[in-house]
């Protein structure tokens, strides 16, 4: 994953080219990515083919879009590799949906392992509850981050679990995977009626200076002047809100659930 226009990618995330491939630069690039490129599932809803790896770079950089965790993390891995970092892919599964515990799809999530001077760090730019800075893979005590407190916990079967503010968020394999290993689960996400990102469900999320903006179907939650604002978007307001809060220009309106009866009047 090295055929990347590094300058164009850095411009996309508003970052300067790092002088060297060290931890400080990795942390800087991770935070810039999280604050510039949204997690979003519009293409799943619109039945647009999803590509990962260098194929996702074109979507994120050239078309200035976001993507799901596979798209975002493999695209970021391509940038890091082009800059000279040693990057590996790790497979995981979600353990919580923000409301309650669950056991998500096998291979349903992906994180990056980045090796710097013989030490490994965990990086994730495709998950709402991800840390904003790399997590030390070998550390088992709490790691403080701008997005909360994280712990890496060993499991009896050799995996690890990522705990964020006391909530078990992801179970992660420790063995390295090839990008092709994720293709079957990507096909499932794109085609299965049981997939959480097909049909009429839309998710989008972006870390913004005033606070995270989040979209679930028609409901937009954002912050303005220190206030948390929640609004339900009709068909006319939806594209403009997506452009303003996530920087995405939609060519067509996705399949959305009906407006709630109490919001239609």
Describe the structure.
The protein has 265 residues and is an alpha+beta fold. The chain has a domain of 78 residues: Arylamine N-acetyltransferase fold (2-Layer Sandwich). It contains 7 helices and 13 strands. An 8-stranded antiparallel beta sheet has the order 5-4-3-2-9-8-7-6, covered by helices on one side. It is globular. It starts with 5 loop residues before the first helix and ends in a 19-residue tail after the last helix.
CATH class of the domain at 186-263: Alpha Beta
Helix/sheet category: alpha+beta
Mean pLDDT: 94
By DSSP, the count of extended strands is 13
CATH architecture of the domain at 186-263: 2-Layer Sandwich
Query: Which parts are unreliable, with pLDDT below 50 for 5 consecutive residues or more?
Result: none
Computed CA radius of gyration, to the nearest angstrom:
18 Å
Net shape: globular
So, the CATH homologous superfamily of the domain at 186-263? Arylamine N-acetyltransferase
The major sheet is characterized as: 8 strands, antiparallel
- Our count of helices gives 7
- Please state roughly what percent of the residues sit in beta strands, choosing from under 5%, 5-15%, 15-25%, 25-35%, 35-45% or over 45%: 25-35%
Question: What's the CATH topology name of the domain at 186-263?
Answer: Arylamine N-acetyltransferase fold
Order of helices and strands: HHEHHHEEEEEEEEHEEEEH
For the termini, the CA-CA separation is 51 Å
Tell me the helix content: 10-25%
Strand numbers in spatial order across the main sheet: 5-4-3-2-9-8-7-6
Family: Belongs to the arylamine N-acetyltransferase family.
GO molecular function: acetyltransferase activity
InterPro entries: Arylamine_N-AcTrfase, Papain-like_cys_pep_sf
Keywords: Transferase
């Amino acid at each position: 994953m090295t055929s990347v226009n590094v300058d164009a990618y850095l411009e996309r995330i508003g970052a300067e080219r790092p002088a060297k491939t060290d931890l400080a630069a990795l942390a800087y690039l991770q935070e810039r990515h999280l604050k510039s490129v949204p997690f979003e599932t519009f293409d799943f809803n619109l039945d647009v083919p999803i590509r990962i790896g260098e194929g996702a770079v074109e979507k994120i950089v050239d078309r200035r879009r976001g993507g799901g965790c596979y798209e975002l993390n493999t695209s970021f891995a391509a940038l890091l590799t082009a800059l000279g970092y040693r990057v590996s892919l790790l497979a995981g599964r979600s353990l919580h949906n923000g409301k309650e515990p669950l056991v998500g799809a096998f291979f349903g999530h992906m994180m990056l392992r980045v090796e710097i001077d013989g030490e490994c760090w965990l990086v994730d730019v495709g998950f709402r509850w991800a840390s904003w800075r790399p997590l030390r893979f070998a550390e088992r005590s709490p790691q403080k981050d701008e997005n909360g407190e994280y712990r890496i916990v060993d499991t009896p079967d050799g995996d690890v679990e990522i705990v964020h503010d006391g909530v078990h968020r992801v179970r992660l394999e420790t063995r390295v995977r090839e990008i092709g290993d994720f293709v079957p689960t990507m096909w499932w996400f794109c085609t299965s009626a049981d997939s959480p990102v097909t049909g009429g469900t839309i998710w989008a999320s972006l870390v913004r200076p005033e606070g995270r903006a989040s979209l679930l179907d028609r409901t937009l939650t954002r912050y303005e002047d220190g206030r948390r604002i929640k609004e339900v978007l009709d068909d006319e307001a939806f594209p403009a809100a997506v452009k303003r809060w996530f920087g995405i220009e939609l060519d067509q309106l996705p399949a959305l659930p009906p407006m709630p009866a109490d919001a239609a009047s």
